[in-house]
Amino acid sequence: MIIIKTPEEIEILRKGGRHLAAVLHKVKEKIKPGISTKDLDDYAFKLINEMGDSPAFLNYRPAGAKVPFPASLCVSVNDEVVHGIPNKERILKEGDIVALDLGLKHKGLFTDMAFTVPVGKVSSSALKLMEVTEKALQVGINAAQAGNTVGDIGHAVESFVRAQKNSQQYGIVEVLSGHGVGRAIHEDPYIPNFGKKGKGEKLVPGMVIALEPMINNGTKNVTLDDDGYTFRTADSKNSAHFEHTILITENGPEILTKTF
Ligand code: MG
Questions:
Q1: 94 phi and psi, to 5 degrees?
Q2: Which distant-in-sequence residues (6+ apart) come within 8 Å of 59 by Cβ?
Q3: Is residue 1 included in any domain, yes or no?
Q4: What family does the entry list (predicted)?
């Protein structure tokens, strides 16, 4: 069931979204060769607590998971697509690309955000992958207009990625998708990064959704590690992930996870 948020809830989500964006950008500033993914998680946890908020992913147990997620921040490096578990032994090095994904609970309501950043100097193909994925998110956001459907968003993202004309092959991850968010970290509707125009649920003002294209620099296929969380590309090529929490309004999409 799709939950339409009340004006009071929307105000809380706006504030929470700004907190989340502020935290994630501060964590980003820590990224450099030599830091562990656990250091990034510890820092995110500290910042969230200082704001009086709570991390949404820590101890979150998705349907079917054997154990709850053990960290605040998902840190997915290179071929890891999403849900990488922070680890003090996992040290970032020059040339890596790192996806940071964070959920935050502010006054009982959830927002969700992710981006992928380079560690030092990275390959031109990695830079292009991040650029294409970030633009794919923006294209998806632009399609998130009241009166459009979930399929219109997927169609826009898919068409944009398929239209890329360079020497790289891009795979759109299909087994993971965007989602409604707000009263829970994952709500209806399910929002794939591919689709058909006019299909799926209609977008109406007051809906809050997380859009999150995950684009691989090769096959769309992914595998799940034995830890039950880390998705990685089946061909070990890089993957990128960008996400914003969006409010559908009569005047177009409003990004809630922004720093201003
Ligand atoms: Mg999400």
A1: -50, 130
A2: 68, 69, 70
A3: no
A4: Belongs to the peptidase M24A family. Methionine aminopeptidase type 1 subfamily.
Total tally of structural domains belonging to the chain: 1
Question: How much distance in Å is there from the Cα of 69 to the middle of ligand 1?
Answer: 14
Asked if residue 2 belongs to a domain, the reply is no
> Residue 73 is part of a domain; what is its CATH number?
3.90.230.10
Pairing of strands 214-216, 239-241: antiparallel
Is 241 within any annotated ligand binding site? no
- Model pTM? 0.97
Whether residue 94 is contained in a domain is answered as yes
Q: Which position has the token pair 């349907």?
A: 63
35 C-alpha to center of ligand 1: Å?
25
The CA 87 to ligand 1 mean position distance, Å, reads: 21
Residues 87-139 have pLDDT tens digits of 999 999 999 999 999 999 999 999 999 999 999 999 999 999 999 999 999 99
Is 254 labelled as part of a ligand binding site? no
